[in-house]
Amino acid sequence: MSQENKIENVVGEISDLFFMADEFYADYIRIYNECYKFSLRKIIPIPFIFKPIDYKVHTEELSRILNELKRIELKTKHIIKRNRKDIQNLGLNNRVNMFVDYIGSFWMMLSKLESIIDRLAEQSEGIRKFPSKEHSIMLDEYQRESCIFQASRETVHSYISDSLKEHKEDLMKEMEEAIECIEEEELEKLSPEEVVNLIKLRRTRNK
Questions:
Q1: What is the mean pLDDT of residues 63-73?
Q2: DSSP string covering 25-93, please?
Q3: What's the whole-model pTM score?
Q4: How many domains does the chain contain in total?
Q5: Which of 17, 38, 108, 113 has the smallest count of CB within 10 Å of its CB?
Q6: pLDDT exceeds cutoff 70 at 198
Q7: If you average pLDDT over every residue of the chain, what do you get?
Q8: Residue 146: CB partners within 8 Å, gap ≥ 6?
Q9: Is the dihedral angle over the CA atoms 48, 49, 52, 57 positive or is it negative?
Q10: Burial class (CB in 10 A: 0-12, 13-18, 19+), 116
């Protein structure tokens, strides 16, 4: 297997896990907004308008996401361990660590948020009070982790965006080379799928 294919395999596997983890981002935003975003429905106690916040449901949902992120993190570390030699030889340490940092920072941020919402759930159920000072301290801790996570997420998305641009340029070049090998009359008969298959065939022959 060529160096290029090894890089694609390792980074591709870990990228897939990143996208699995990133799917939970929308859930995180929704939960945060439902708990903290200002809304008249949350503060006006009028029938059909007032909407109390079910903190317990949000805590359970965050707990589920945290478990999924931990599972994804373990799978990512397994891939790294299995390909450690190739990762070192191909100089992929920084790229791989970037994905690991993203998953780890996502988990840490959500764990801080879960702790806060769990305390709010206990207070709403009358189990124990959640003093505003303690709430403020925990929110500050969550905000710090949120800043770390958002920076990590931006780094990964920027890398993926740049990689897609490079891949698009390479693919266009391959298509041009493949098309040059075909007579014009034959080219007009090819469907887009057949052009892609031609590129795949050329890749196989070039390995």
A1: 96
A2: HHHHHHHHHHHHS--HHHH---TTT-----HHHHHHHHHHHHHHHHHHHHHHHHHHHHTHHHHHHTT-H
A3: 0.73
A4: 1
A5: 38
A6: no
A7: 79
A8: 109
A9: positive
A10: buried
